[in-house]
């Protein structure tokens, strides 16, 4: 399969499964493992209402434990598949495969995962796609290693050739590359013909250098959902207001403005003096539904209303994600959808 015959599917297209990894005491979740396990149980329960979940586990004991916890929560275990594979942590959005669909199967782009620019050890996570592919987890596919640092959370596609990303993240990973060079590389590898860049927008407590999936997401080829901030006293206000203006200036392929859906701003969540990155934009689209991160904030209900407007034919399911943002990510960050036919 060549780049010319492949396509990067949008997240709302039919899926085979969602890939994720179970948190353990050997991951960064160790200090608050019980809380995080509860979130994972709720997440797997939500996923399996709509499609299968493929859960990576580090060994047989972890599988037995996860199976028992999920079973006791009455999760549909017929829709849960475990795979034993080593991993450093559980951020599958960034260490998992980026899947391109072609007429003769899938091409799994295996970009370098560097722990978000060398911030954390990621040697096992960088091998995850290769190991899963060798285990036969993915059907009708080939793996293409790409010697270039790129995380799945850094890119959004509309499924029709338009990519949305942030300059801060890509420039941080590749400071010597020009905008034009990054345009060409991303478009070539990801089978895109337009790259839209956002210059503004970042969340305190986010160590990904402004991943797009915490900021703005396609809801349709002509619609974007984004994290807004309406509190002038909040430190995020100038950047997110500037990002909203950038989004308003973007145009669809036919030259019309995007339909924009502004997500509400939750109250600041501070942990031991550290502001946490609570973003409603970090939702996951699955077959027939949108799984939305909830933070125990009154804005949760308002965010669900906005997402229902952006995705009118999908059920909006809230998943409690406050424990996840302690480690600077949320629901979308710990999952990777697999397009229909890949698993």
Automatic annotation (TrEMBL):
Q: Name one Pfam family in it.
A: PAD_porph
InterPro entries per the UniProt record, alphabetical: Peptidyl-Arg-deiminase_porph (IPR007466)
Q: Which UniProt keywords apply?
A: Hydrolase
Q: Which domain of life is it from?
A: Bacteria
Q: Tell me the GO molecular function terms.
A: agmatine deiminase activity; protein-arginine deiminase activity
Hydrolase as UniProt keyword: yes
Q: Name one GO biological process term.
A: putrescine biosynthetic process
Q: Which residues form a coiled coil?
A: none
Say yes or no: keyword Cell inner membrane present. Answer: no
What protein does this entry describe?
Agmatine deiminase family protein
């Amino acid at each position: 399969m060549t780049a010319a015959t492949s396509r990067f599917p949008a997240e709302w297209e039919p899926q085979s499964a969602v890939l994720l990894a179970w948190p353990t005491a050997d991951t960064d979740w160790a200090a608050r493992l019980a809380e995080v396990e509860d979130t994972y149980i709720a997440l797997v329960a939500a996923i399996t209402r709509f499609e299968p979940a493929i859960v990576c586990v580090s060994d047989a004991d972890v599988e037995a434990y996860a199976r028992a916890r999920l079973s006791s929560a009455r999760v549909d275990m017929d829709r849960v598949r475990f795979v034993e594979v080593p991993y450093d942590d559980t951020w599958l959005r960034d260490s998992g495969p980026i899947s391109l669909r072609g007429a003769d199967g899938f091409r799994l782009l295996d970009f370098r995962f560097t722990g978000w620019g060398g911030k954390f050890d990621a040697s096992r996570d960088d091998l995850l796609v290769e190991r899963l592919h060798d285990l036969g987890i993915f059907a009708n596919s080939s793996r293409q290693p790409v010697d270039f640092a790129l995380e799945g959370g850094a890119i959004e596609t509309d499924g029709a050739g338009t990519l949305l990303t942030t300059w801060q993240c890509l420039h941080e990973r590749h400071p010597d590359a020009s905008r034009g060079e990054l345009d060409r590389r991303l478009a070539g590898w990801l089978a895109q013909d337009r790259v839209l860049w956002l210059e503004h927008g970042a969340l305190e407590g986010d160590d990904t250098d402004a991943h797009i999936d915490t900021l703005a997401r396609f809801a349709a080829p002509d619609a974007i959902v984004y994290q807004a901030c309406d509190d002038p006293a909040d430190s995020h206000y100038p950047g997110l207001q500037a990002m909203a203006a950038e989004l308003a200036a973007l145009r669809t392929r036919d030259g019309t403005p995007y339909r924009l859906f502004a997500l509400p701003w939750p109250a600041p969540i501070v942990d031991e003096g550290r502001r946490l990155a609570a973003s409603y934009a970090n939702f996951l689209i699955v077959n027939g539904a949108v799984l939305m991160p909830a933070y125990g904030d009154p804005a949760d209900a308002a965010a669900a209303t906005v997402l229902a407007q952006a995705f009118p034919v999908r059920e909006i399911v809230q998943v409690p994600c406050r424990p996840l943002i302690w480690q600077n990510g949320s629901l979308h960050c710990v999952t990777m959808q697999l397009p229909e036919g890949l698993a």
